[in-house]
Amino acid sequence: MELKVSPSHPLEWLALLLNRVPMPLLHGQMFPILSKAVLTAADKGVFRYLSGDSRTLGEISEFCAFKPEPARQLLGVLVSLGYLVADKGKYGLSAMAEKWLRTGSGSDLSDLLIYNNRVVWKWMEQLENYLETGAGIAYHQHFEEPEWQLYQRAMLAVARSEVNEFAKRCPVPARAARMLDIGGAHGLHVTALRSKYTGLEADILDLPGAWSAHPEPESFNRMEGNILEVKLEDKRYDLVLMSSLAHHFSEAENRMIARKVAASLKPGGIYVINEFVHPARLDSDSGLVGTSSSLFFGLTSTSGTWTIAETQAWQAEAGLKPMKARRFRTVPGRVLMSAVRV
Ligand SMILES: C[S@@+](CC[C@H](N)C(=O)[O-])C[C@H]1O[C@@H](n2cnc3c(N)ncnc32)[C@H](O)[C@@H]1O
Fold it and tell me: Distance between CA atoms of 218 and 191, rounded to whole angstroms?
């Protein structure tokens, strides 16, 4: 699966092949407003308002406090992008949006879009600074309480979009008794594994700010701390998961974490790194998800995405034996990279 401009007619395919399509016009003029339209619609409640019922332009404008003409333009974008369908003067959610944006659908990504609109969008202004100085934003060190709340809700929404495939394909040793999830405060990955592997107890380690966004007690052991600083108990775990965190750390830090994790595993225990990966080879067919995420995590954390080979090398250097990497079928660019303590 790829993020690409795709032809809808053989002559357009030919035009693309012959380089007659002004791609920078599409990327530079249309892509930014497309993203901002989706984020703003989510933040202003368009998808929430349409969850359950189709509405007229007037009703949507009134609910969202939009002027009718700009609202009509916004809704036009959302129809063209496949989020809404327009029928007999009313707008409703498309089948795609029913699944991914309807309030209460169980896979609603609205919280990610709201976080991106309120917190992340302004970071884009700092890309030049990142390129010139090499210093990313390091947001985990600067967030105040409101940003932590938005961030954690967003991470939970993203996790919902992958958790079914994750639980099916994450390797878990037979009779696993205890696991650690590094940076898993929202608890969804652990909850999914625990419902599949009964008797699996879990520790979850996360930063104090993350826990402040999840106040209720849960059915796992909360550990407050920084993986770069905490000491893990030797041979305590059958499974250690680190999901969407390697992209916030430098190579040296990821190596150090792998050594720490390896020592904390029982023989036969597994270290799973769940990540968006950087493509192994760079060309115009290489994964746009991986390269754009790399730049994004560079900007935000002075890190980036890593290749499967780089990730497995950290695991191997820590004395673990890498298993075959498993690519998600439903999330482009996402891979489970696991290694076992022999
Ligand atoms: C991108 S989110 C991923 C959340 C979750 N693991 C998932 O895949 O859905 C990164 C998580 O790691 C936590 N985190 C960031 N730096 C950390 C550190 N140094 N030690 C422990 N947790 C950290 C964040 O607070 C956040 O909860």
Answer: 10
Fold exhibited by the domain 10-108: Arc Repressor Mutant, subunit A (1.10.10)
Q: What is the mean pLDDT of residues 93-113?
A: 96
Q: How far apart (Å, rounded) are the C-alpha atoms in residues 298 and 84?
A: 33
How confident is the prediction for the chain on average, in pLDDT?
Answer: 95
Pocket test for ligand 1, best of 165, 206, 230 (most atoms within 8 A of CB): 206
Q: Are 268 and 173 in contact (CB under 8 A)?
A: yes
**Domain covering 154-340: architecture:** 3-Layer(aba) Sandwich (3.40)
Helix (H, G, I), strand (E, B) or coil at 205: strand
Q: Where are the domains of the chain?
A: 10-108, 154-340
Give pLDDT, residue 264: 98
d(C-alpha 72, C-alpha 267), whole Å? 61
The Cα 215–Cα 11 span in angstroms is: 57
- Are 305 and 297 in contact, with CB atoms under 8 Å apart? yes
Q: How high is the pLDDT of residue 290?
A: 86
| Section 126-154 average pLDDT | 95
User: Is the pTM here over 0.90, yes or no?
Assistant: yes
CA 27 to ligand 1 centroid distance, Å: 31
CB-ligand 1 contact for 206 (6 Å cutoff): yes
Q: Determine whether the shortest distance from the Cβ of 335 to ligand 1 is under 6 A.
A: no
Alpha-carbon distance values, 212 to 59, 118, 248 (Å): 37, 19, 20
Instruction: Read off the pLDDT of residues 239-294 as tens digits, 9 standing for 90 and up.
Output: 999 999 999 999 999 999 999 999 999 999 999 999 999 988 887 666 888 889 99
Whole-number pLDDT of residue 285: 67
